[in-house]
Amino acid sequence: MQTGSTRVNVLGVGVSVLNLTTALDAIACAVAERRKGYVCVTGVHGVTEAQEDPEFRRILNRAFLNTPDGMPMVWLGRLAGHRAMGRVYGPDLMTLVMRESVARGWRHFFYGGANGTAERLRAVLTEKFPGLQVTGTYEPPFRPLNDAEQAALTAQVAAAKPDLFWVGLSTPKQERFMAENLACLDTTLMLGVGAAFDMLAGTKSQAPRWMQRSGLEWFYRLCQEPRRLGPRYLVNNPLFALRTLGQLSGLRRYDLEQ
């Protein structure tokens, strides 16, 4: 399943050496060749979660692409000598792929969101990109699917025949879902883009570009949702920084597990 692209070892997680252009090229090749796989969009939160969860770390490392979603991933890649590495941010990647899809005839399915977000996203994107084919949406419950729901989803996807199946859940929930369902769903690529559903549907705002480029998006989101995101950012970010210093100094070794 894993792509042959170069990866940077970030605390034992292989982050693909990509920018938006090369990520789109890789996706286009996979769709053209009908090569099944899943794409993880990974930042500090995902890498930190992987430290205490070996199975989740394996899911990230077995992805077709594990894109550098946060600026710290980009900075570490450039420090390792990959100067062309750039941020592959979920909303930007989704927008770029949608634009390209109109000419290429790619079909899409949106899985995730709440309170009608997936349908709202379909309406927003099909208006923005005339001719875009979104052939299905599914808003799951806040629990694992039961057998009947799983069967209904499988049948719906088989009828929709999407090339790209987008998952808008939280990390690590969306990555687990993709790894567990890739084989049974009739699609080529699954892409976990988290809050991109809400941001592109207009139910949540994005940080200003200058905050995104300077690595301060986490602060913007913390101010928006302090209760939910406070434990994540105020614990995970310092831990990530300390562990990264340990890796860069050679005091701690992190092996890439496949």
Question: N- to C-terminal separation?
Answer: 11 Å
User: What's the β-strand tally?
Assistant: 8
CATH class assignment: Alpha Beta
Low-confidence residue ranges: none
How would you characterize the largest beta sheet?
6 strands, parallel
> What's the average pLDDT?
92
Count of individual helical segments: 12
Structural class: alpha/beta
Radius of gyration: 18 Å
Would you give the CATH topology?
Rossmann fold
Strand percentage: 15-25%
The number of domains is 1
Overall body shape: globular
What does this structure look like?
The N and C termini lie close together (11 Å). The strands form two sheets. The protein has a six-stranded parallel sheet, with helices on both faces. The protein has a two-stranded antiparallel sheet with strand order 1-2. The chain has 258 residues and is of the alpha/beta class. Helix 11 (217-224) runs antiparallel to helix 12. The protein has a single domain, classed as Rossmann fold (3-Layer(aba) Sandwich), CATH 3.40.50. It is globular. The chain has helices at residues 20-33, 44-51, 54-61, 71-79, 90-104, 117-128, 147-160, 173-181, 196-201, 209-213, 217-224, 226-249, and strands spanning 7-10, 13-16, 37-42, 65-68, 107-112, 133-138, 164-168, 189-192. The mean pLDDT is 92.
Layout of SSEs?
Layout: E1 7-10, E2 13-16, H1 20-33, E3 37-42, H2 44-51, H3 54-61, E4 65-68, H4 71-79, H5 90-104, E5 107-112, H6 117-128, E6 133-138, H7 147-160, E7 164-168, H8 173-181, E8 189-192, H9 196-201, H10 209-213, H11 217-224, H12 226-249
